[in-house]
Amino acid sequence: MQTNFKMLAKTFFGFEDILAEELKQLGAQAVEKGNRVVHFSGDKGFMYKANLCLRTALKILVPIHSSQLRNEADLYTMAYDYPWENYFSAQETFALDSVVFGEMFTHSLYVSQRVKDAIVDRFRAKEGVRPSVDLKQPDVRINVHIDRNQCTFSLDSSGASLHHRGYRTATNIAPLNEVLAAGLILLSGWDKRSNFLDPMCGSGTIPIEAAMLSCNIPANINRKAFAFEKWKDWDEDLYLTIEEAQLNKIQGLAGTITGFDKAPSAVAKAQDNVRNANLEEFVDIDQDNFFFTKKEEEGPLHIVTNPPYGERLVGDINEIYKQLGDTLKQRYTNTQAWVITSNLEAMKQVGLRPSRKIKLFNGKLESRLLHYSIYAGTKKVHKLKSNPTK
């Protein structure tokens, strides 16, 4: 029986709760939330499953050594004394990623350089040869995390960020990160049964992530490789068993999933990405200007969208947000609409009062995910119908 070990999943600010819930549902042990990270325990097979299935994780790290530092010299000594040969040989390559908080170290590149020097010097002293650094496709990727005087070395089991799902080969300007898109859908509380629409879908990331969520398709099933595949204890048979078990859980789609975009180039890219994800039977991408459309079905509709801004913006932003609100109010009743934006001033032009505001970051941009409930008639009338005794 494999033994459990500690791991951590990195994520975006504001996604800690939904990532923790994902981990619990997947079977993780000792789940504990931090800042942009969730700690948990599991065995090697669970590490494989976490990388394959988690929708809101950016990295899965495995801590292997931690120590307190008194000064800068301690960092070199800590790295030099650690038995890196247990994880890779002098003939293999490695890369370092560093994150630093505190006053002792202020530059992550400096930390990476010092740890690299120590690792190279250890191999040279013990074996007479040194491993090379490969920043693009290393055999082992090491994460260095320094929080004030506490330093932790971890193995990066993911490699490239887990938002690189493998299906998106064509993107529009300022494409939405796949992990961010999945998180927006989860935060919106979509029931996976009502019809789903992204009326400004760009390269199609939100509809694709919605389809994968609704059909229980593993988030990273289209990904070409994970870092753990180069580790000494890589167990391909175990991974394939886990992958097959997850594929057997795929289910059909209850409602419809649609994306609109008025730009022909964006529509073509979105359709390509849908094909790459093997989701043609689940996702419809149409060329349409949302402001000239109306809701086709009487039943409930769920909208999650990322309106254009910055480089994506063509036209006056205030007018675009006003039209967004007018379209929702006039032609999309019985709709739950969730909109992420970094332009809070323009969002005031929507003319609707959001029932929820969730602080998030879209890249480095501080943003809000806003929820608008669009009822048939006023909200007051809706409440009276729902509560006839009042």
Write the SSE topology:
Layout: E1 5-10, H1 16-26, E2 29-33, E3 37-42, H2 44-53, E4 59-68, H3 72-81, E5 93-101, H4 108-127, E6 132-133, E7 140-147, E8 150-156, H5 178-188, E9 195-198, H6 205-214, H7 236-247, E10 257-261, H8 264-276, E11 283-287, E12 301-305, H9 317-331, E13 335-341, H10 344-347, E14 356-362, E15 365-374, H11 379-386
Parallel strand pairs: 5-6, 5-7, 9-10, 9-12, 10-11, 12-13
Antiparallel strand pairs: 1-3, 1-4, 2-3, 4-8, 7-8, 13-15, 14-15
Helix pairs in contact: 2-7, 3-4, 5-6
Give a description of the structure:
- The chain is of the alpha/beta class and 390 residues long.
- It folds into 2 domains: 5-156, VC0802-like (2-Layer Sandwich); 178-386, Rossmann fold.
- Helices cover 32% and strands 25% of the residues.
- The protein contains 11 helices and 15 strands.
- It has helices at 16-26, 44-53, 72-81, 108-127, 178-188, 205-214, 236-247, 264-276, 317-331, 344-347, 379-386, and strands spanning 5-10, 29-33, 37-42, 59-68, 93-101, 132-133, 140-147, 150-156, 195-198, 257-261, 283-287, 301-305, 335-341, 356-362, 365-374.
- Strands 2-3-1-4-8-7-5-6 form an 8-stranded mixed beta sheet.
- A hairpin with a 2-residue loop joins strand 14 (356-362) and strand 15 (365-374).
- Helix 2 crosses helix 7, helix 3 (72-81) packs parallel to helix 4 (108-127) and helix 5 (178-188) packs across helix 6 (205-214).
- The longest helix has 20 residues, at 108-127.
- The protein is elongated and about 75 Å long.
- Mean pLDDT is 92; it is low at 380-386.
